[in-house]
Amino acid sequence: MTDRIFSLAALTVLELSPPDMVEVAARAGYSHVGLRLVPATEQERHFPLVADAELRRQTQARLRDTGIKVLDLEILRLEPATCVADFEAILAVGAELGGTELLVAGNDPDEARLTERFAALCELAAQYGIHPHLEFMPWTDVRDLRQAMRVVANADRANGCVLVDAFHFNRSGSSLDDLAQLKPKRMRYAQLCDVAGPVPADMDEILRQARNERRFPGDGDADLVGLLHALPPSVPLSLEIPTRQLLEQGVSGEQRARMALEKAQAVLAAV
Question: Are 55 and 93 in contact (CB under 8 A)?
Fold first, then answer.
């Protein structure tokens, strides 16, 4: 367990600037962080690493001083009007910061076009040593694990991967049997959290929970032990656990990061 890579995801401490996030990760006991280069929504607070050279310099300095490394970069969306070449500046910054994994969302209902764009993104990312991971989310056009596996398989690029997030795995109704069919080489990291209660009937409520109200590992109802058994035994784990209620109660980013890591380590010890 001590050799397992744990990465602090941006969404867990979204109020922190990248340099502060690196510092918190180091103090809390992580070895890696995930950096959000592109905001997931227009409403969220964003720190423009791609556009702000000084912010990049500060982040690089904090990475160097703490020894923390960057695991993944987020979030690129493949949409009907996407021009993959437009992502190159983002990939270049990500590579400069040391990131090797890339979170990709599928927001195009034309699966053939989505697959073609994912393949093109893989080719562009390969030039930077980056592995795009298609993340299935039930409110996107890549709704579950089976569909993500199909797109990545049909794109057929060596660096193309699938991102398994415990929240989306649960809420999309994906199965451990399906996960058993995913080749280990297609999983270079996974996202861990817990999920409370049954799947809501309302997709807006699922989305709200995903962005605001996840649970620390072991504090919910997901079969995390089963999920971890099904993942490659050494796959890095990104702890993506937004807990707005704790944030609003004044629990600091560092406290939440520590809680997430301690809970994740306890669940992993049971595997």
Answer: no
Asked whether residue 1 carries a pLDDT value surpassing 70, the answer given is no
Beta bridge partners of 215: 194
Long-range contacts of 170-174 (CB under 8 A, 24+ apart): 170/195, 170/199, 170/222, 171/138, 171/195, 171/199, 171/206, 171/209, 171/210, 172/136, 172/137, 172/138, 172/143, 172/144, 172/145, 173/144, 173/199, 174/136, 174/144, 174/145, 174/146
The 10s digit of each residue's pLDDT in 54-90 is 999 999 999 999 999 999 999 999 999 999 999 999 9
List the domains of the chain with CATH numbers. 6-270 (3.20.20.150)
Q: What's the one-letter identity of residue 241?
A: I
State residue 3's pLDDT score. Answer: 78
